[in-house]
Amino acid sequence: xxxxxxxxxxxxxxxxxxxxxxxxxxxxxxxxxxxxxxxxxxxxxxxxxxxxxxxxxxxxxxxxxxxxxxxxxxxxxxxxxxxxxxxxxxxxxxxxxxxxxxxxxxxxxxxxxxxxxxxxxxxxxxxxxxxxxxxxxxxxxxxxxxxxxxxxxxxxxxxxxxxxxxxxxxxxxxxxxxxxxxxxxxxxxxxxxxxx
Length: 196
Ligand SMILES: [Zn+2]
Fold this sequence. Notes:
The chain is α/β, with parallel strands linked by helices.
């Protein structure tokens, strides 16, 4: 049995359109420090998100259907993470790189947003499903957006905001939003460093 890292609760945000708010976890079934079932409540708007089989589903998430053209080696180099600790979010098609990234970056936990249907959570990676980027500002050591979500300007902007200042986002297409210094850009990918 696995479940969502309980510490990840601190980084989740309500996806309803109000000021960023933390969520309150009411755990049901736990497996050590992992939440298998439970609910996440928003103290601002009262919304409740269900956590089932270790997966928090905020609603309206489209499971990734396309393959990614990014490689784990490239993403690992682009993110430029140092040592272990913290979280990196992979969204949409980029979630396919999870197991290879875990091997290259031991000790960094992954958050998989909208992976393909049937993707289970694992000891290294928690699964979230959401139509709006469900992570707080300045909560991630890195964010990687697959093509399916990188082309959505709102996901790109929210993805940038979720990165800690000075750290990086990799996007498989789309346009870099404000608040990011573009470090590299090719036909199918841009790499940015959050500036503010
Ligand atoms: Zn709310």
